[in-house]
Amino acid sequence: MSDTEVVVELSGITKRFPGVVANSDVNLTVRAGEVHAVCGENGAGKSTLMKILYGMQQPDEGTISLRGERVRLRNPQDAIRAGIGMVHQHFMLADNLTVLENVVLGAESSLGIGRRARARVAELAATTGLEASAGTLVERLGVADRQRVEIIKVLYRGARIIILDEPTAVLVPQEVESLFRTVREMAADGITFVFISHKLDEVRAIADRVTVIRRGTTVGTVDPKEISTRELAEMMVGSQLPAPGTRESTVAGHDVLRVSDLLLETEGSTRAVLDDVSFTLHAGEVLGIAGVEGNGQTELVETIIGMRKASAGTIELVDGAGNVRDLTRLGTLARREAGIGYIAEDRTRHGLLLTEPLWFNRILGYQSREPVSKGHLLDLAGTRRDTERIVRDYDVRTPGIDVPAAALSGGNQQKLVVGRELSGAPVLLIAAHPTRGVDVGAQALIWERIRAAGRDGLAVLLISADLDELIGLSDTIRVMLRGRLVAEADPATVTPQQLGSAMTGAGS
């Protein structure tokens, strides 16, 4: 690989924001046809560096060279013209448009929208392994095929350097293997990949080289075949890579949540989004829900928390004395006041107000309870004190509680949300993808806090695309497919591959 042409060279990249140095003298060298991983803890500066490479932000210092020529990328259009594409973690596709329409949208001037465009899309579909036709609506595609459409989009625009941001976050093991085959084949044809991921075992499986960034600066570049996962984790965060592991069951006897015959229908849909869903969750139990995204997990969570109204069925919360409260017709605030904590799958949409300070975000969902309120009035002093406690106890790295939530890295935002939702002694925690996009250190902290809360009797409904997390944290796992609970698995014996098969309906 050492004789291969250098296609990307970032030298001395420094980027400052008010009160924060995101990148400090970062160096990155990427060669043609390689898969080059960039790893680092949350807040280490990976996202900022990739935004600079894609023209979304400008460096304060340092230079960018592409194929030996120094360039200035003022915006993503400049990056695209220079042959750089980016596949974002959260897909940027229009569900109501076809594959062809999504690919050519904004690039109509190159091959038009007719026969030539269709032929090029078909050619790229073969390259990426997309079997769906160009006329298929994106809303009908699974997560893995949506990702392929995103890759086709950047290839269609001429990209020879592709940034993949957390590409395996929502894929089951079989889909990860398929993606990696595609990446290797494309790399063999000269396409260069910059691979951003927190999953170190996957990084070691796919990357030719790994550059580690810690606290905004480059730690080093290594050959993943010559370093263990533990050593790579130590480079990132200075500690051993945690694992969810196995644990003794903390399930107590009494019920906490009873969901019976839950039905959710949506206008225009040919089938129910949730169909006859029933389960019981006990005190001290972690019930994991496995499923490929788009099979009803999000709707299940939103129906239990009150963001959606069930078409039929009941949702009941039971206290330690056996008193049953029917939540089915109650609003979200009433359910929160009944003792439900909620870690939303998208913290930026449903968990935080990014433009507001940290102490203000402590109020959300708790505006009627101590320590946020006293009677009918907000207790701002109490709110600030408790926010400072959360920052200390959950290692939220921030200059202070008056900075806006947007100033924090994703992992620190998540630790703030987890700290808030585990405050106030909830009886039930709904945790949707609680460690998505967080580094190994934050992941370990969140896992331990969920375990500790379980030991104290908290019931947890865990939805996660991380199958190791589901297996390691759950007492019971249920598999959701097309809005139904179709299988049950024992975390002590099930493998990620077996779960992945059940999630995709293989063998059913």
From TrEMBL:
Keywords: ATP-binding, Nucleotide-binding, Repeat, Transport. GO terms for molecular function: ATP binding. CDD domains: ABC_Carb_Monos_I, ABC_Carb_Monos_II. This is ABC transporter ATP-binding protein. The lineage of its organism: Bacteria, Bacillati, Actinomycetota, Actinomycetes, Pseudonocardiales. Pfam families: ABC_tran (PF00005). InterPro entries: AAA+_ATPase, ABC_carbohydrate_import_ATPase, ABC_transporter-like_ATP-bd, ABC_transporter-like_CS, P-loop_NTPase. PANTHER family: CARBOHYDRATE TRANSPORT ATP-BINDING PROTEIN MG119-RELATED, GALACTOFURANOSE TRANSPORTER ATP-BINDING PROTEIN YTFR. SMART domains: AAA. Residues 8-240, 257-507 form the ABC transporter domain.
